[in-house]
Design goal:
This protein has 4 helices and 8 strands; from the N terminus they run ααββββαββαββ. The protein is globular. A hairpin with a 2-residue loop joins strand 3 and strand 4. It has one domain (26-171): Roll (Pnp Oxidase, Chain A). The chain has 172 residues and is an alpha+beta fold. Residues 49, 52, 65, 67-70, 81-83, 87-89 line the site of flavin mononucleotide (FMN).
Length: 172
């Protein structure tokens, strides 16, 4: 049984043919510019939710948890996401500000990881995010919080059909 599962996993498709080219030598100096263009290219390649990412957090004892979230914006404050302060991740972030994000776009063989510390954005910005959600009904949610990851490190990873995968790292 476990053999057949292992073999089934082994036989699953790898990255698609015709992966995009990426030359780190001509990458923009600002990682936000590179991220915006990769996100647009992922969208054009058919990725349905290119703004979805995994966020890893840890509690004070260093026990980790991760979950998928949606990127809400990218600006001088950092990489925005929103959630309830009362959630597990909200509690972990109050104990330990460090977090790591990971975006993966299989259609283009690309991954972007971001790690750093997380700050809370304003009450007004949090309320606006709550009000703009698709199912908005005019309600308020005082525990809804807009956060921003302020990166220390951002790594762009491009799969290569010849397995010479390319990594391009920014340290901030
Ligand atoms: C694609 C995707 C996007 C999601 N986006 C969000 C989000 O933006 N904010 C949020 O609070 N939960 C979002 N969720 C739900 C979270 O993954 C998670 O289940 C929930 O926030 C509770 O997490 P926690 O118990 O670790 O705090 C999303 C789930 C998926 C699969």
């Amino acid at each position: 049984m476990s053999d057949s599962f292992r073999l089934m996993l082994r036989a699953l498709p790898d990255f698609p043919e015709n992966l995009p080219a990426f030359d780190p030598a001509s990458a923009p100096a600002d990682p936000s510019d590179l991220f915006r263009s990769w996100l647009r290219e992922a969208l054009a390649a058919g990725v349905r939710q290119p703004h979805a990412f995994s966020l890893a957090t840890a509690n004070a004892a260093g026990n980790l948890s991760s979950r998928m979230l949606i990127l809400k914006d990218l600006d001088a404050d950092g990489w925005h996401f929103a959630t309830a302060r009362t959630s597990r991740k909200g509690k972990e972030l109050s104990e330990n500000q460090r977090a790591a994000m990971n975006f993966y776009w299989s259609e283009v063989g690309r991954q972007v990881r971001v790690s750093g510390s997380v700050v809370q954005l304003s009450v007004a910005a949090s309320a606006r995010d709550w009000a703009e959600r698709p199912a908005a009904d005019g309600s308020e949610n005082p525990s809804w919080q807009l956060y921003a990851v302020q990166p220390r490190e951002i790594e762009f990873w491009q799969a290569d059909p010849g397995r010479r995968h390319i990594r391009h790292c920014y340290e901030l």
